[in-house]
Amino acid sequence: MLAAAPAMAQGFDWATLSQLAQTRAQAPYRANGDKLPAELKALDYDQMRLIRFRDERATWFTEQLPFHAQFFHPGGTQTDTIRVNEITDGVAQRIPFKSDRFEYRQVVDPTAWGDVGYAGFRLLHPVNKPGTMDEIAAFVGASYFRALGKNQQYGLSARGLAIDTVGAGAEEFPRFTEFWLERPAPGATQVTVYALLESPRSTGAYRFVIRPGNQTTMTVHARVYLRTGSAPVTTLGLAPLTSMFTFGENQRHATDFRPEVHDSDGLMVVTGEGEWLWRPLQNPRQLVVSSFAMQQLRGFGLMQRDRAFASYEDVEARYERRPSAWVKPLGDWGPGRVELVQLPTPDETHDNIVAYWVPTRTPLPGEALELAYELAWQGDDQQRPPSAWVAQTRKGYGYTKLSPQEQAQQPKFVLDFAGPSLAALPAGADVRAMVSADSNGRVLEALAYPNPATQTWRAVIRVERIDPARPVELRAFLQHQNHTLSETWTHLLLPE
Question: Does the domain formed by 5-378 have CATH 2.40.10.270?
Answer without folding.
Answer: no
